[in-house]
Write a structure and sequence with these properties.
This protein is of the alpha/beta class and 635 residues long. It contains 25 helices and 20 strands. The longest helix is centred in the last third of the chain and has 25 residues. Keywords: Repeat.
């Protein structure tokens, strides 16, 4: 499609479709025909989210663009500016827009080319924007040159509730020195109304961590803290125990485990015992020794107000003893963890004694013996507690373990996520994929270090055709020309797969036609999901299109997630809502297919013995008959 024609289409969508709430302008110089986009923005109704991405916005186009955005002031809720080069005039106009946009609630500024003075001017405008609730920025706003910028924002804007600061430059290549002292000092002030602080990917100095700890111990308004950063030195650590003991307002804490040395866990456990405000605690990327983590279990038995604790990965030694201590049902329901088994014997013992471990990671350090295969087979096949299964091998998987995994996937009804990391031979890969195809609830699949040729790629395609639940597939570190073989097979496989929404790390730029067909199939599936959601979420749609989309994706976990998010239901309630609408579809199939208006009514031609009519066969018989019918089969 030519550029001008595409902008005409965008103009029509913006001006005529009042339901349109989100628009993204990506990879454009806005030099020609930009007036169509500008005019569409000006005439749009109900636009709530605008994203400018990868643009060169200099004086003339941004002036028109900012003027157009000014006309959406009444509805614009979120403004996102990513990887944009602004001129000085462009920054001034953006500041003016922020000052006038009273409806703006969220501002996102990531990876833009801004000087220290530009960053300061933008944050000063944010401080004056009283309706602003959330600001998300990158490392350029915490550089040494901008040391006071975020501190002044937090101190000056009494309505600001959320601040997210992220570093996007690769780890170990921090582009500029960062200073957080002014920001953390502002958190300690009583005027600060911030409720949520999130920090990602920074290397924090020991002095910064001490300053943050002091601020949080006196802050009485903060509700959520996310600190996914690392220490700049081996001695740098975060005093989580002091924060839990002294802070009376925090309800959620997520902290990177590398900031918590193992010797500090005892103090953290003691702090948990006396805390009454904390509801969720997460140790991100944690690899805890089971013997060290036992004290946290003892603390949870004392603290009955902490609802959810994510301990990450629990390793030997002491793993079995740790799992035995989680036998209390209430405690087990409050815990999230992955048990890492390095021994087949330990895994067999756990399975045979029903230690109820939902997430299992199997990383054998020795060759598995034949009797261990039998024990694993008895324990894994048909297991009702495992929901996530991860297998990591250094060497290529052998045929016995491939058969075991295939049987486990086919028989474990509750497995939703699988991570398979090992080299494969042709027959073993096909065997495992055949088992995955029969898995009744698998949603997320990660495959690493596999080799795909014609036979394996065909088996992968057959698996996608057979599955009705898989939502996401990630392919990492594939060997040889595996990506090329898969990309040739996937377009045909996705023709009849309606549930896959994400296919990660499978880009083949030299095969653009097949990649376009793959992306187009994923877009189709996403549209089907949204249409199916309308069949469930009030006000429900009983249109044939919505019912047909629901029929295709009714077993998808993504449908439950979407229904839960849009309707505000809990996960069990969303599952029940999907089941009820599925029952409604089965019972009212003929009406939804527009064969009849309400229900099937048959007229007898005469008296006497007549064969049983369609409206007399009974519900059970009808449901069996309906199982052979599809809405798309009826024109």
């Amino acid at each position: 499609m030519q550029r001008r024609h595409s902008l005409v289409l965008v103009h029509w969508l913006l001006t005529e479709h009042r339901c349109l709430e989100y628009v993204e302008l990506c990879e454009s110089r806005m030099s020609r025909s930009h007036f169509l986009f500008r005019d569409g923005l000006r005439l749009s109704h109900g636009l709530r989210h605008v994203k400018l991405c990868y643009n060169l916005l200099y004086d003339y186009p941004p002036r028109d663009l900012m003027d157009a955005l000014s006309s959406t002031i009444a509805t614009l809720n979120t403004l996102e500016v990513v990887s944009v080069r602004f001129s000085a005039a462009g920054v001034v106009m953006l500041c003016e827009l922020l000052g006038r946009c009273s409806a703006l609630r969220t501002l996102i500024l990531h990876e833009n080319e801004l000087s220290a003075s530009d960053a300061g001017a933008l944050m000063k405008s944010c401080a004056a924007c009283r309706g602003l609730k959330a600001v998300r920025v990158d490392e350029s706003f915490v550089s040494v040159e901008c040391a006071r910028v975020l501190g002044d924002l937090v101190f000056g804007n009494q309505g600001l509730e959320e601040l997210v600061v992220s570093q996007f430059s690769p780890a170990g290549t921090q582009a500029r020195a960062c200073s957080f002292r002014e920001l953390f000092n502002a958190l300690a002030h009583q005027r600060t109304m911030l409720r949520n602080l999130e920090m990602y990917n920074f290397e924090l100095e020991e002095s910064d961590l001490r300053c943050l700890c002091r601020a949080l111990t006196v802050n009485a308004k903060m509700k959520r803290l996310t600190l996914l950063c690392s220490g700049a030195s081996e001695d740098a650590y975060f005093s989580l125990a002091a924060v839990i003991s002294n802070n009376v307002s925090l309800t959620e804490i997520c902290v990177n485990a590398c900031l918590l040395p193992s010797w500090s866990l005892k103090a953290v456990a003691s702090a948990i015992e006396t805390n009454v405000s904390l509801r969720k605690l997460s140790f991100n990327d944690a690899c805890l020794i089971a013997d060290d983590a036992v004290e946290l279990l003892e603390a949870l038995l004392v603290n009955q107000t902490l609802e959810r604790v994510n301990l990450g990965h629990i390793n030997q030694p002491g793993l079995l003893n740790f799992l035995k201590r989680t036998g209390d049902k209430d405690l087990r329901n409050r815990l999230e963890l992955t048990a890492v088994y390095g021994s087949a014997q330990d895994l067999i013992y756990s399975l045979n004694h029903d230690l109820k471990t939902p997430s299992v990671s199997f990383i054998p350090v020795a060759q598995i013996r034949e009797e261990e295969f039998l024990g694993l087979s008895r324990g894994l096949c048909g297991n009702s507690s495992i929901t996530s299964l991860s297998v990591h091998l250094n060497n290529a998987i052998d045929s016995n373990l491939a058969v075991l995994l295939s049987a486990a996937f086919a028989s474990c009804r509750h497995v939703r996520a699988a991570h398979l990391c090992f080299p494969t031979e042709a027959s073993e890969a096909v065997t495992i994929l055949q088992g995955i195809a029969k898995s009744p609830n698998l949603c997320d699949l990660v495959i690493r270090r596999w080799t795909f040729e014609h036979r394996e790629a065909a088996a992968f395609g057959d698996m996608l055709r057979a599955t009705q639940t898989l939502n996401s597939v990630t392919l990492e570190e594939l060997q040889g020309d595996s990506g090329a073989f898969l990309v040739m097979e996937l377009p045909r496989a996705l023709e009849t797969n309606y549930t896959l929404l994400a296919l990660n790390d499978c880009e083949q730029t030299e095969d653009e036609q097949n990649m376009f067909e793959i992306r187009d199939a994923l877009r189709r599936n996403l549209s089907l999901l949204q249409r199916a959601t309308r069949f469930v979420v009030p006000p429900v749609s009983d249109s044939k299109k919505a019912a047909s989309a629901f029929e295709k994706v009714r077993k998808s976990r993504a449908l439950v997630t979407n229904v839960s998010r849009l309707s505000g239901l809990s996960e069990p309630e969303a599952v029940e809502a999907v089941k009820l609408r599925g029952r409604y579809l089965d019972e009212n199939f003929m009406a939804l297919a527009r064969v009849v208006k309400q229900k099937v009514v048959c007229e007898r031609e005469g008296a006497g013995d007549c064969p049983v009519q369609l409206d007399e066969i009974g519900l059970d018989c009808w449901l069996r008959l309906r199982s052979y019918l599809r809405l798309d089969d009826i024109l």
